[in-house]
Amino acid sequence: MATAVDTRMSEAEWAARQELAACYRVFDMLGWSEMIYNHITVKVPDEEGAFLINRFGLHFSEVTASNLVKIDIDGNVLGDPAPVNRAGFVQHAVFHRNLPHAHCIMHTHTTAGMAVSALEGGLRPTNFYATAFAGQLGYHDFEGVTVRDEEGARLIASLGDKRAMFLRNHGILVMGRTLPEAFLTHWSLQRACEIQLATMSMGTPLEVPAEVIAVHQRDLSQAQAPGGPGAADFAAMVRLVDRTDRSWRD
Ligand SMILES: [Zn+2]
To answer: One Pfam annotation, family name (predicted)?
Structure first.
């Protein structure tokens, strides 16, 4: 296993690379990879304006700590040349640039997430997970593939003060102050979408009344695992990945 000393990187950058590489493997294990597309990005903690992203052309299952690419806010590669999907980074850059708390940003095209993003009415408060997001989701109308900088202001406006966002007809976008926090948000939203998909395939779902939604959202923090939002959840998923493949550490 490589270390920060072997790679001549700061301890902070190497730790961020390891956590992000593990996250790509967790996403793949959970069925959230999309051929060679989609991105999870994090800020490099000790280098202002530097971010880590997957190398364009690799499947999520091939991502390792050392093959992640360091880029600036415009998607230019810092260090050794490597292919990066600059187009894919445009929307991440908008949020990294405008939201100081967005350490980690995740965007996926999962079937359930994309399906709900394309549904009139979007995610409805009809299941446990969806109820937790009621009133906390932004929606951004589809304008075509997100490669144009001028869409940025509209993306920020669509998110507003919400926790996460559906890109309509397109997919899920979540962010977090830490990677595990973003992971837990993505997992919960993905589950909400999967269950809505299943429920609507059977008939008309029951909506949870507003007063129950308020109680649910008020009391949810009492059911949180120790260690900060998503920390225990993410660590458990990394242990599962490690049972079959530990190569993300390299
Ligand atoms: Zn996309």
So the answer is: Aldolase_II
- Please give the average per-residue pLDDT across 205-224, as a whole number: 92
What are the distances in angstroms from CA 189 to CA 45, 127, 185, 235? 26, 11, 6, 19
Cα 45 to averaged position of ligand 1 atoms, centre (Å): 25
Q: Taking residues 19-33, what's their average pLDDT? A: 98
Residue 76 is given by DSSP the state P
* 1 Cα–ligand 1 center, Å: 33
Ligand 1 centroid–CA 108 distance in Å is: 6
Residue 5 has what pLDDT? 65
pLDDT band at 148; cut points 50, 70, 90 = confident
- Token pair 């995610």: residue: 123
Class of domain 4-249: alpha beta
CA distances from 38 to 49, 54, 97, 113, 178 (A): 21, 9, 19, 13, 19
